[in-house]
Amino acid sequence: MKLILSVFFFACLTAALTATAGEDYVCDNNGVKRIVSIVYQNEEQPVPCEVRYDKGQGVETLWTAKSEVGYCEARVSEFIEKQESWGWNCNKFEVPETVENVDSQQSQHVSDSESPEVTEDGLHTSMY
Predict the structure, then answer these.
(1) Is the pLDDT of residue 9 over 70?
(2) Is residue 124 part of a domain?
(3) Which one of 58, 63, 68, 81 has the largest count of C-beta atoms within 10 Å of its C-beta?
């Protein structure tokens, strides 16, 4: 059951992060997760924006701003404080580095002489 809930939570988090360009917070209380996000209509502009809240049963929009810069950020800050006063542990979600970025960075540090060799049977050998 925990695996199903973990997969569901990860899917919700991925969907939420795909739509957002702003701040995302994950709140936890005894294994129950909540996601609080700021969603910008245009990544280049701070408004319009929405504050979305996902309790795992669907996403609801708590606040919206059409022209007041900083409104969504202030509402999220207040909401996170309230969540924490109720016993939730909230942390800003940092998007992990993608595998492609890690691979490209690693390949920049490996010279041709350090590259592993592949033998006829498909095994990799290392010069280390």
Answers:
(1) no
(2) no
(3) 63
